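Give me the 3D structure for Vacuolar protein 14 C-terminal Fig4-binding domain-containing protein.
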Amino acid sequence: MADALSLIPAAVLRNLADKLYEKRKNAALDIEGIVKQLASAGDHDKITAVINLLTTEFTYSPQANHRKGGLIGLAAATVGLSSEAAQHLEQIVPPVLNSFSDQDSRVRYYACEALYNIAKVVRGDFIIFFNQIFDALCKLSADSDANVQSAAHLLDRLVKDIVTESDQFSIEEFIPLLRERMNVLNPYVRQFLVGWITVLDSVPDIDMLGFLPDFLDGLFNMLSDSSHEIRQQADSALSEFLQEIKNSPSVDYGRMAEILVQRAGSQDEFTRLTAITWINEFVKLGGDQLVPYYADILGAILPCISDKEEKIRVVARETNEELQALKADPAEAFDVGAILSIARRELSSEWEGTRIEALHWLSTLLNKYRNEVLQYLNDIFDTLLKALSDPSDQVVLLVLDVHACIAKDPQHFRQLVVFLMHNFRVDNSLLEKRGALIIRRLCVLLNAERVYRELSTILEGESDLDFASIMVQALNLILLTSSELSEIRYLLKQTLVNPAGKDLYVSLYASWCHSPMAIISLCLLAQTYQHASAVIQSLVEEDVNVKFLVQLDKLIRLLETPIFAYLRLQLLEPGRYPWLFKALYGLLMLLPQQSAAFKILKTRLKAVPSYSFNGEQLKKTSSGNTYQFLHQMSGGSQISEDGDIVMDRGNSVNGINFVARLQQFQQMQHQHRVHLKTQAQTRKNSSSSSKEAERQEEPKRLQSSEVNVVAPSRSSKRAQGS
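Predicted structure for Vacuolar protein 14 C-terminal Fig4-binding domain-containing protein (722 residues):
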């Protein structure tokens, strides 16, 4: 230090610490001249002594003016060294960097000025301190003093120029530093960081794209910044990177896909739009690289399909279509189970559009990877069944499409119908609100006859008689009214002449026995009018209740629809269809005379023209077994059911044993009557128990009330005695 003091005049050192900038500046010029002479003489030891003096006595001084003088002195020494400054940078730069965190804003300002001048001299040699300088500039960009910020911006531009022209810059060492700061919220720091990313990306020799996954999330985070300028800068940088990705033959799609999936769920609309746009491009460009990420991508796309912003919905739908069109092999990292899990999760979405697309995915997977999907059937089956209660008809129809696709196999068909019946049993509202829609759609998708046969088989053994009755009534109404079941109705009309019709009739009969009106409807549809009449006559008092009359009212109104046009036309031939008349008059006799249904049916029967009748044709049957009614036809043939000329077969027509069928119906109705009596007795016992409990409680209440009444009277007596 003594050498340095002898080299620099005391007046210069005194001026270097002066409070006036001009004096410090003049002193710095003197130091520059001294160092320049020493450099020319090659006396670097003395130069080192001068730098040490400036550092220890000035830049680290507790006096602010000394620190300011020390900074300007170090810059002057660097200028004096000129081309030989590089070998002294290890002494010069650290004190300046240390001054960036000085409490005095003017010291920080002069530190920026000093480093700026130093950098101008040494240029590329400056790179060895880049990380420390970058860290310092990052902090100074958010400095509380506007002058310091301005000085830092000037220095920042110079450093960027130096970096872009240097071949010594290490992007590998810089990226960790950048990554650490990408989640900083300060707007000035964010601008600083985006600026550096943009500059470095513009350098041909620096591969910023290769490190994009390290700072991509930070850029997306800036898209939701409150500052429009920052959002714009971040968007501009992202757009540039996306364009580079499109033109690059090698991109790490996987790591970035994970980031995009997270950002697609952002609360910020602009962030979601940008993320889904990137995902769209990735799906088009990524190919096999994205196969392991299909499930995650799908999980990001499906919610966006129902986004409130139309632009997001459009891009999400396009991406979804692109993803569905891709071909992937489950043997090559394509996880069918993971995608199924996403689709199942989104079936619970509050948005209809998302639920619909989730179902489209299930259908797509079943069509492409049926065997793999069926391995996860137990995981998705319950969710699909619950989806049948969805408020959207379109969702329910799509759910049924998926169910039908699964049920192509016999074992899965049986499972579907069994579970469906279970759901109807435990959820009455499902049967009421969606029952007809579900049954009709399944009949279209899985063959109506097959569906009805399976339902009938299950209901035949149903232990819950109340449910069985309700279910049969629902199925019967669908059978009589739905256009989807027209082929079944046509087949049933041929019950007496067609083995296939007979087989279906017998198959349905057992379960239809749960409802008298369903059986009567089935007989009218199958044109087994004699049996319909027998069923009507077999009804007892308990059978003709309010529920029965309501069902009968519906049937009478249905008889006026086009479906039963054939039956109404048959009324024009009473000689050929006497049992039809008897059945209809039987129903008429069961109806209250003041009811609308009574008037409708009576009017219809009265509309039959009188010329249709003659005494011979309408000869009354003898009482006894109704199946022994035979009308002598021309040629000696006999009639056992209306309209069918057959040889005498006793009580069997076309292989149908109607006597046995009637007994089957009567037995089932007997079970229902016993069940109703049991229910009534249970309710009665429950009511009696409640009344008995009340009677036992009554004396206690009376006793309590007596105590309350007597106590005051005694008290009053004592009062009177006193």
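The chain has a mean pLDDT of 87. Let me know if you want a second pass.
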